[in-house]
Amino acid sequence: MIFKPFYYFDTGCAAYVVGCGGKGKCAVVDPQERDIESYIEFAKEKNMSITHIIDTHLHADHRSGGRAIAQRSQALYCLHRLADVEFQFEPLDNGQEIEIGNVLMRIIHTPGHTRESICILVFDLKRGAEPWFLLTGDTLFSGAVGRPDLPGEARENAALLYDELMEKILSLPETLEVYPAHFSGSVCGVGMSGKPMTTLAFEKKWNALLSLSRADFIDKVSVEIPEKPAEMAATMLFNQGRSS
Question: Which of 8, 144, 180, 221 could form a disulfide linkage to 189, CB 3.0–4.6 angstroms apart?
Answer without folding.
Answer: 144
